[in-house]
Design a protein that fits this description.
The chain is about 45% helix and about 10% strand. The chain has eight helices and eight strands. Strands 4-3-5-6 form a four-stranded antiparallel beta sheet, with helices on one face. Strands 1-2 form a two-stranded antiparallel sheet.
Length: about 260
């Protein structure tokens, strides 16, 4: 390992300075690059009711991204960790969704043995998933009035659960979910690679959208879970001879008697 002085550690990484508001090209001043990169992610905000653990992890990623101008490798770490944070966000949403309720977990079918059903109280995400995996359950239901649903407590099972409960939506996102799982596995078991600030910022943006939507908050102008498009009523009027028209906002109309 190359031991650097404090001054060297505080110096800007030249690789980060070529990313500018206008794209690649040129070279930004270190102080301008630091300001630009922080502003690029400052707009990614989480809803107020998002679980604290998920919020802390997201803020940790934003802090690491902000220091990427000093250490370019941090952008890769942020992009990778954002993929892994999907599962933590889903676990925390699972715990918030059932909040101290008791759910039923059923073991795998074994020849000649009845399938045991365990009742697990959801006190926290860590406590629930520890118990769930300890009993080797493979199915879940909220209560005896519901049908059993396959559930393995892993990322794919959590995504399927969130869809069943209506917490995530969209056919486009449905097609992305297998990709998200594959990328998560690549990060967990993959090889060395290097990402840019662009990919890292996109991952943070998508993660913020995903988390907010889990907690019921779509993102205005979002890429994955956009809020409903605002629609305004337009009034159109014709001249007496029908040869010309005028259009304007309907709320500007005056009631003339």
């Amino acid at each position: 390992m190359d031991i650097k002085t404090l001054q060297e550690l505080q110096a800007a990484d030249e690789r980060a300075l070529v990313f500018t508001p206008l794209g690649l090209g040129g070279r930004m001043k270190p102080e301008d690059s630091a300001d630009f990169q922080q502003r690029a992610i400052a707009r990614f905000q989480l809803a107020d009711d998002v679980a604290e653990r998920t919020r802390q992890k997201f803020e940790q990623l934003r802090a690491a991204y902000s220091h990427g101008v000093l250490c370019y490798e941090l952008y890769t770490m942020v992009a990778d960790q954002a993929k892994l944070t999907l599962e933590q966000a889903l676990r925390d949403r699972f715990a918030a969704y059932y909040d101290s309720a008791t759910v039923e977990a059923r073991e795998r079918s074994r020849r000649g043995r009845p399938r045991r059903v365990h009742q697990i109280t959801v006190k926290s995400s860590a406590d629930f998933f520890d118990q769930f995996h300890n009993v080797k359950a493979v199915e879940l239901r909220a209560d005896s009035s519901q049908p059993w649903a396959e559930f393995n407590g892993m990322l794919n099972g959590l995504l399927a659960w969130a869809r069943r409960e209506g917490l995530i939506r969209g056919q486009f996102n449905r097609s992305l979910e297998p990709v998200q799982q594959a990328l998560r596995n690549i990060v967990a078991h993959g090889e060395y690679h290097l990402e840019t600030p662009v990919e890292a910022a996109r991952e943070l943006s998508d993660l913020a959208e995903f988390i907010n939507h889990l907690w019921g908050q779509p993102t205005p102008g979002g890429r994955l879970y956009p809020a409903p498009v605002r629609r305004d009523i337009v009034a159109i009027g014709w001249s007496d001879d029908g040869q010309s028209t005028r259009a304007g906002s309907a709320d500007q109309l005056v009631d003339v008697n």
